[in-house]
């Protein structure tokens, strides 16, 4: 299936200060919220920031970037960031997963970055546009820059910016095994997903196939989220769209056809019939009934049961 390039969208290649997202960083950001609803923007820049977060200045900036990119908070006003209700439900003390110990959390974060592309152009592009069996960072630089120029022609991009973003993205999923500082060995949140492996030094490959740690609740949430953007208003989707379309769960989670089919077949029971699978005369489709915001949140809550 040919990928479509969406023009008129702003590309985003900076903000993380070359630090992959760490396990506790989203919690660190959330804990700065006042009444669990908003975070003053000054929290990330005032003199107390280093002490408040317990990391260096560049890491504070990185934590802010990841909190925005993962949808934990949004740019609500000139003075504050607004915390998402779902993030609060997950990260509050006594919440679903305050310390990011449940596999559902990194899978949800991966979907936010590679499936939705809020501030993560490289993540989205890597998982939706790269089809080579193996690749190096250097081989990806020019195709990624070309993609960025297509969707955001006015943006001036340096080769070093694209290279640094690719390096950070790859290390998010396949951390360095040798060299570097002790900080490089701090396990990135996304490293445990097993989506990407370094097959030789500097050469990477996707790990396609069933993902045992991916809960059906996260898969179903991603499917509905994708459906809303890909075919809003349609009551059915072709199997091929779910498996291969740009931004689809099949692509973003690197699932094989059999795994996708098995998950889709099981969703009828899982969702109480709101999502159902049919295979008639070789026409494989997923059907959907209307789902409220609460229904969608319930899918995620099930992933933490």
In short:
With 305 residues, the protein is α+β, with helices and mostly antiparallel strands.
Question: What does this protein look like?
Answer:
This protein has 305 residues and is α+β, with helices and mostly antiparallel strands. The chain is built from 13 helices and 9 strands. It has helices spanning 25-30, 49-53, 57-69, 85-91, 104-116, 121-129, 137-151, 159-173, 216-230, 239-244, 249-252, 257-270, 293-303; strands at residues 38-40, 73-75, 80-83, 135-136, 196-200, 203-206, 236-238, 275-280, 283-288. The strands form 3 sheets. A 3-stranded antiparallel beta sheet has the order 1-3-2. A 3-stranded antiparallel beta sheet has the order 4-6-5. A 3-stranded antiparallel beta sheet has the order 7-9-8. Helix 7 packs across helix 8 (159-173) and helix 9 (216-230) packs across helix 12. The longest helix is centred in the middle third of the chain and has 15 residues, at 137-151. The chain starts with 24 loop residues before the first helix and ends with a helix. The relative contact order is 0.12. The model is unreliable at 1-5 (pLDDT under 50).
């Amino acid at each position: 299936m040919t990928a479509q390039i969406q023009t008129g969208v702003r590309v985003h290649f900076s903000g993380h200060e070359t630090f992959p997202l760490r396990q506790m960083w989203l919690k660190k950001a959330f804990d700065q919220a006042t009444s669990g609803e908003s975070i003053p923007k000054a929290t990330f820049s005032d003199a107390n920031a280093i002490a408040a977060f317990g990391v260096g200045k560049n890491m504070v900036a990185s934590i802010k970037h990841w909190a925005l990119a993962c949808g934990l908070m949004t740019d609500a006003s000139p003075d504050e960031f607004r915390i998402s209700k779902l993030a609060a439900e997950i990260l509050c003390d006594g919440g679903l997963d305050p310390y990011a110990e449940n596999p559902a959390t990194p899978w949800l974060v991966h979907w936010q970055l590679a499936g939705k592309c809020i501030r993560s152009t490289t993540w989205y592009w890597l998982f939706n546009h790269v089809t080579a069996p193996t690749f190096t960072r250097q081989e990806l630089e020019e195709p990624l820059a070309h993609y960025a120029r297509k969707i955001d022609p006015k943006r001036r991009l340096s080769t070093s910016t694209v290279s640094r973003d690719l390096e950070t993205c790859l290390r998010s999923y396949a951390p360095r095994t040798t060299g570097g500082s002790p900080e490089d060995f701090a396990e990135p949140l996304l490293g445990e997903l097993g989506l990407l492996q370094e097959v030789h030094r500097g050469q990477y490959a996707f790990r396609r196939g069933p993902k045992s740690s991916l809960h059906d609740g996260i898969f179903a949430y991603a499917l509905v989220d994708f459906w809303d953007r890909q075919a809003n208003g349609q009551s059915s989707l072709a199997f091929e769209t779910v498996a291969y379309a740009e931004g689809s769960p099949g692509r973003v989670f690197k699932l094989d056809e059999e795994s996708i089919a098995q998950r889709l077949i099981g969703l009828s029971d899982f969702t109480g019939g709101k999502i159902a699978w049919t295979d008639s005369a070789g026409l494989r489709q997923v059907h959907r009934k209307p789902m409220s915001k609460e229904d969608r949140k319930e899918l995620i809550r099930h992933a933490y049961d």
